[in-house]
Write a structure and sequence with these properties.
With 106 residues, the chain is mainly beta. The protein has 1 helix and 6 strands, in the order H-E-E-E-E-E-E. The protein starts with 13 loop residues before the first helix and ends with a strand.
């Protein structure tokens, strides 16, 4: 299993969800999308922040935070993601997303 420490969405139900049609109202299905070289400009509203882990000099770790505050009134970030995975589950209306490789932020 790839990345055993990652909590894969719907791990216990994925076989049933991936083989279901989702056409019956009692039938829940899942679609998984793998997006390659996905680019997006994400606008952040008031009070919304994104935090990304970073490795700093001298083997220390920290976070880069992007959001609204101070002089920044219309925050946004442009991301290019080499591999991005999205899970959509019809029965619960849940959407899960994961960066499969580190995004490039601009």
């Amino acid at each position: 299993e790839a990345a055993p420490s990652f909590q894969w969405p719907e791990k216990d139900n994925y076989e049933k969800l991936m083989t279901a049609s989702g056409r019956d109202s009692n039938d829940s299905a899942m679609v998984v999308l793998d997006l390659i070289d996905f680019g997006a400009r994400v606008h952040l509203g008031s009070g919304i922040e994104l935090a990304f882990p970073v490795e700093l000099p001298m083997k220390t770790k920290g976070q880069i935070e992007i959001g609204c505050g101070g002089k920044i009134k219309d925050p946004w970030v442009h991301m290019t993601v080499p591999k991005f995975r999205v899970w959509l589950v019809s029965g619960t209306g849940m959407m899960y997303a994961a960066f499969m490789e580190r995004p490039d932020l601009r």
